[in-house]
Amino acid sequence: MKAFLVSAGILAMSAGAVLAEGQSHHIVFHVDENDPAVMNLVLNNIENVNAYYEEQGDEAVVELVAYGPGLNMLISGQSPVAERVSAMALQMDNLTFAACGNTMAKMAARTGTEVVLLSEATVVPAGVVRLVELQEQGYAYIRP
Q1: What is the number of other CB atoms lying within 10 angstroms of the CB of residue 93?
Q2: Could you tell me if residue 132 is left (phi over 0), alpha (psi between -120 and 50 degrees) or otherwise beta?
């Protein structure tokens, strides 16, 4: 047991050494709920992560992926956090917003009208696939 604890301590110290000042951290946040509280929580998390890494002298590369009911976060005229998304996009050039193309197509088919996104959002073919791709690229996955 003692050997295990010593090994764990050495591993923890070496992991800390790997993340020296000036590192780049890649994080993907996911929203799949049409709940303003959840949307604000994820935006708070993004601001906090960004501020923390800036204080450390590091960089955070952040992407928010919205799909299903969470896509409402990025829909023009419907988003309860549209002003905040716009402000954050202006303040953080390391932040991108990805909207699920599959969800958009289903919404358009159901309503008979085109889904118009906030100008800050870009369309990805499938939100879940985007999450997988980013995790395969080493992004840390956060679901508030």
Answers
A1: 7
A2: alpha
pLDDT, tens only, 24-62 = 999 999 999 999 999 999 999 999 999 999 999 999 999
- Token pair for 104: 């958009």
Q: Mean pLDDT over all residues of the chain? A: 89
State in words which class domain 29-142 has: alpha beta
